TrEMBL record:
Range of residues in the leader sequence: none
Protein name: Acyl-CoA N-acyltransferase
SUPFAM superfamilies: Acyl-CoA N-acyltransferases (Nat)
Residue intervals of the N-acetyltransferase domain: 7-169
Pfam families, per the entry: Acetyltransf_3
InterPro entries: Acyl_CoA_acyltransferase (IPR016181), GNAT_dom (IPR000182), N-acetyltransferase (IPR051531)
């Protein structure tokens, strides 16, 4: 288990999958996580979640440090061992949006991935209409690498998919700039 100023980041447990499933079934969350159709996800989806967690390089549950409130999950998946790259995914329960938790957990996971897991880069995709997430990713140090124009149909209109990444040397420079 890891701790940051306000959060506990721990391994996923069997009892977490119902909460992860519920989070995916929240319309506000689902439409920001997946380019698939936004539909209710039944019990079979829990099997998919379990398989994803088992295959991930890192799959952690985020809780508040003080009350152990269940906040969400973060994971590194589709790891390319040769090129030391992994995709990042993060989802928080909407009641925890806007509290700085995304920034806090991302800074920890990025640092851990580079220093302990020896990754060279961390990659992510974010929908272009998710301005808050893009702002957080940029604050942490992710750079836009490209845009897939009108690549996702959601809410009756096309939206872009923004490709972002951060490299280990960029993270090291940011740490130096902050005296860490």
């Amino acid at each position: 288990m890891f701790e940051t100023n306000n959060l506990r980041i721990r391994a996923v447990r069997n009892t977490d999958f119902e909460k992860i499933h519920d989070l995916w079934n929240d319309l506000r969350v689902q439409k920001s996580l997946s380019p698939s159709y936004v539909v209710p996800l039944g019990n079979k989806f829990e099997e998919t979640l379990r398989a994803s967690a088992a295959d991930a390089l890192l799959y952690c549950i985020i809780e508040t440090e003080d009350k152990c409130d269940w906040v969400g999950f973060v994971n590194l998946f589709n790891a390319d061992r040769k090129n030391r790259d992994a995709m990042l995914a993060l989802a928080l329960c909407p009641e925890f949006w806007g509290r700085g938790y995304a920034t806090e957990v991302l800074r920890f996971v990025v640092d851990y991935a580079f220093r302990e897991l020896a990754l060279h880069r961390i990659t992510l995709n974010v929908f272009g209409n998710n301005a808050a997430a893009i702002k957080v990713y940029k604050r942490v140090g992710f750079a836009e690498e490209g845009i897939q124009r009108k690549a996702n149909w959601s809410g009756g209109k096309w939206q872009d998919v923004v490709l972002m990444a951060i490299l280990d040397e960029e993270w090291a420079a940011l740490r130096e700039d902050h005296g860490e």
